[in-house]
Predict the structure.
Amino acid sequence: MIEGLLACGVPVSAIGIQSHQHQGYWGREKIEAVLSRYEKFGLPIHFTENTIVSGPAIPPEIRDLNDFRYEDNVSTPEYEEKQKNQMEEMYRILFEEHPLVKAVTNWDFGDGAWLNAPSGLIRRDGSVKPSYEMLKNLIWGEWSTNLELKTDSKGIVNFEGFKGEYSVFVNGKTTSFTLNDNSADITIQL
C-alpha cells in the first residue's frame, strides 16, 4: 500500500505499526524483520499500539484477539518479570537501534483495559508492575540527558544529548533550547 501511495504522489508522513503481542512476544528477530520491511521507505516509523502481556499467551487458533477475554487475575510475579524483560528488549531495539523509529506507544496503562488483558504497566489495584519501573528508569534515567558542564576559555561547551527540551542555568540566569533532527550548532547567549 505504501509503495502504491508513494508511486501515485500521495504524501505519506509516517508509518504506523501495531504489535498486540497477546499470542506471544515477537522477539528480536521478528521486530527486526518488521523494521527491515518498512525502513526502505525512509519514513518515520511509529509503533502506535503495543501490548505485551503479563499472563499466558492467547492460543494460536484464536484469529481475532477480540474473540478472547482473559480471566481476572492471571498475571503472576513470574509473568510480570517476563513482561518487563520482553518490553525492555523491544523498547531498546526500537529506541536505541533504529533511528527511523520516532514514537512508541504502550496500548494499555492499566491491566484489564482491553480484552481484560494483563497488558498494563500497573495492576488493577493501581500498584506498579516491574515493567513500569523498568520504563521509568530507562526514560528518566538512562535515556535522559542531565549534565553539569563548564565552558572552555572561549565560553563554548560541546555535548551530545537526547532530542528534547533543555534548560541552561548559568550564574542565576536561565534559558531553554530544543535538540531535534535538524539541530546542529546551537548558540546561546545569557
